[in-house]
Amino acid sequence: MLALTPFLLQNGTDTKRFHRTPEMAVEAQKRYPCATPDGAFVVACIGSYEARKTQSLLLKAAKKLIDSGRLSNIHCLFVGEGPDKPMLSALIEELELQENVTLCNFTKQPFYVFERCDVVALPSTGKEGLPNVLLEALAMEKPCVATDKFGMPEVVVDGVTGYVFPSGDVDALADAIVKIGGESAETQAKMAAAGKAMVFAEHDKVKQFEKILALIVEKAKGAL
Q1: Is the torsion defined by CA of 44, 122, 189, 159 positive or negative?
Q2: Of 19, 55, 124, 224, which residue is most buried, by most CB within 10 angstroms?
Q3: 65 with 173: CB under 8 angstroms?
Q4: Could you tell me the residue ranges of all domains in the chain?
Q5: Rounded to an integer, what distance in angstroms lies between the CA atom of residue 156 and that of residue 99?
Q6: How confident is the model over 114-170, as pLDDT tens digits?
Q7: Is there a contact between 99 and 89 (Cβ–Cβ < 8 Å)?
Q8: What is the CATH number of domain 15-223?
Q9: pTM for the full model?
Q10: Cβ-based neighbour number of residue 147 at 10 Å
């Protein structure tokens, strides 16, 4: 019997799909206007509208940031589909966030969403593993904020590629968003570059397949 030693295969994404262009930036503005009077700081949240994704936490964090004046120009761009959409629509009205939130349908072209936003947020409290949306966002040079659970801290590294926050903590989520929004353009650019470099080096799908294939071949030779 061929015995394989333990081997960590990182989650991978098709990095060839994610390349930014000036034309993409123009199209992203058309598809997702996200207008606010003072110019929007756009926080994107991509994922199915269901309980485990906890998009409501981001809405509550946005409300706190607006009311406190810490980030009054925040605009939350939600993209997805699912059973929680009516609940989210009602919560947007209840919190009076109509001018600061856009609730969009699912798209097979998420790179336009990434291009449009400043930060990607994943406030999930349910089981996630290592969400592909984080890998895609980092590949598109976008800092991320995410729950400090499951595989998310593997790629969202505090002060390097973004910030993590305790699951379900609305104040900590708001703080994490402000930390990125308050950084200088130079620091934000460094975070963006670090995230892209990490994904291309450690989470490229083809490279991960090549690693596991090389291991299998090596072990197979040793068994002969």
Answers
A1: positive
A2: 55
A3: no
A4: 15-223
A5: 29
A6: 999 999 999 999 888 899 999 999 999 999 999 999 999 999 999 999 999 999 999
A7: no
A8: 3.40.50.2000
A9: 0.87
A10: 25
